[in-house]
Amino acid sequence: MNKTPSLTSLIEQLTEFDTALLANTLGYVDPTPAHEFYMGSSIRSVTPTIAPTVGVAVTAEIDTSTPDNPSDRTVFWELLEFTANPVERVWRVVIVGGARPDHECVAGDGMAKFLHSVGCVGLVTDGGVRDVSGMLTVPFAAYCRGVTIHHCALRWTSAQKPIGIGGITVSPGEVIHANAEGVIKLPAAALEKLPERAAAMRAFESRTHALWRQPGVSIEEKKKGVMEYLVEFGFDKP
Question: Which three-class secondary structure state does DSSP give residue 98?
Fold first, then answer.
């Protein structure tokens, strides 16, 4: 009898694949439109040497840029209850809502060390971060709009609600996959099949690229070869 893999096991397996490969694979194994699962280029890695990272989304909203705002960390401490999960690695996904968007700074290396100690693998935000060299020592992955040197009072305003970031909507509990090239969320219905199909996609791409780079092979032969590889690796049907 086949045993359904746990979410923890699937997350571990998915760290073996780069993010673009998984995005390609999703087009063949899941009906979710591409524009609903990949973030735009405004959200980019500032820790590109960290390997692909995968985890479950914990979502929040913060204002770090409004002058004279009173600090409120109540939501932050509530978020730790969701983050400190001994079973699943999590992503902190944070949107900013302050009066000066270019002055938002959501985390530095101190926050990164704290969050990593309770099971958080990284941060995705439409604000900025700082102390990147310190984050790399943790290691703690950060995907953001860029680096911002400082912040005003930290006022956390919401937790564990669907949020819009990078042109898509991320809900609490969704699985996030990211690497140096960007961020995607993985549809729940595709998770169990993704490791096996991503391995097949990697093999398909390897064969296809080897064929495409040959200058002495005609366009027709290359087209025919790709069609044959799609069938061989099980990607001939949507």
Answer: coil
